[in-house]
Design brief:
With 152 residues, the chain is of the alpha+beta class. It has a single domain, classed as Alpha-D-Glucose-1,6-Bisphosphate, Chain A, domain 4. The chain is built from three helices and seven strands, in the order βαββββββαα.
């Protein structure tokens, strides 16, 4: 029997900030490279703030390619999820989801989920990258997000 990694990876933590503050950092792609714990995001143009399902934002990755991200779930200050793809191509089957749950007046539980269950099992390149996206990598993003949110 092989030791297969899970295809849905999740990490959560409480952040000492309200959901509105945290959500602005997540829903504005231009701010994402500042707290990305995967060191995968280089930059995004200003003015792409996500506001609804169906929105698409573009991101330049650190290795030089561009990703279009199609928003598939959205609730202001509570939830945003997107499917990344190469420009003009259909999404290959992985999803990023951010969920925010108020704990009290100044604290929010944030959960990041990376779901790669829809990736083609024969796509060796994407499978390798997906396996490298562990709960520890997600936690690194959450920790950096917390630092950014708690400074605001």
């Amino acid at each position: 029997m092989t030791d297969t990694p899970p295809t849905v990876v999740r990490s959560s933590r409480e952040i000492a900030a309200d959901p509105a503050t945290i959500f602005e950092l997540i829903a504005d792609p231009a701010r994402q490279p500042g707290w990305d714990g995967n060191d995968n995001l280089a930059e995004a143009a200003a003015g792409q703030r996500v506001r609804a399902v169906g929105d698409v934002f573009s991101m330049l990755l650190t290795q030089g390619s561009t990703r279009e991200n199609r928003v598939v779930e959205f609730a202001e200050e509570r939830l945003v999820a997107w499917l990344p793809s190469e420009p003009g191509s259909p999404p290959p089957g992985h999803l990023w989801r951010w969920e925010l749950e108020p704990v009290d007046a100044g604290r929010t539980r944030v959960t990041c989920t990376y779901d790669w269950s829809g990736l083609d099992p024969d796509d060796a390149f994407r499978q390798k990258r997906a396996r490298a996206t562990t709960a520890d990598r997600l936690r690194a993003s959450l920790d950096r997000l917390a630092v950014a949110a708690e400074k605001m």
